[in-house]
Design a protein that fits this description.
The chain is mostly helical and 131 residues long. It is built from four helices and two strands; from the N terminus they run H-E-H-H-E-H. Strands 1-2 form a two-stranded antiparallel ribbon. The chain starts with a helix and ends in a 14-residue tail after the last helix.
């Protein structure tokens, strides 16, 4: 009987240690992910250095910030749509996107892209405008 109780106590202790280890690893991974995500949002680095590749982006009326972020990611202008979305929501450019066609570069960071797409001083080039 004592041997069974002893083995039961050891088994319970092993299970508690394993659960604690799983929780510690999960919290550590979550912390690393949160730090990395925050760094990407606030570091605001471009996809490429130098001149980069120029890509034409059409922002239609009613396009949401999340849809724009996905579009920019598909076109290779940003690395992570979620990072761009959070950056836009936290920036001064929140809800200020102007419809139009924009020439953006992979060398631009999110701030520079938003500055162009939200510019209130210059009129964006529109699809329907012809010179």
């Amino acid at each position: 009987m004592n041997a069974k109780q002893f083995l039961g106590a050891i088994s319970a202790m092993i299970i508690r240690i394993a659960m604690a280890a799983v929780i510690i690893v999960a919290v550590f991974r979550l912390a690393v992910y949160a730090y990395d995500f925050g760094y990407q949002v606030f570091a605001d680095v471009s996809v490429s250095e130098g001149e980069g590749r120029v890509v034409s982006v059409v922002v239609s009326d009613g396009l949401s910030s999340r849809e724009l972020a996905k579009l920019l990611e598909q076109k290779g202008l940003i690395n992570d749509a979620n990072v761009f979305y959070v950056y836009e929501r936290l920036s001064d450019y929140k809800d200020k996107l102007k419809p139009g066609t924009y020439e953006l570069s992979t060398a631009m960071n999110a701030e520079e892209m938003l500055e162009i797409m939200c510019d209130t001083q210059a009129e964006p080039e529109s699809e329907s405008e012809e010179n």
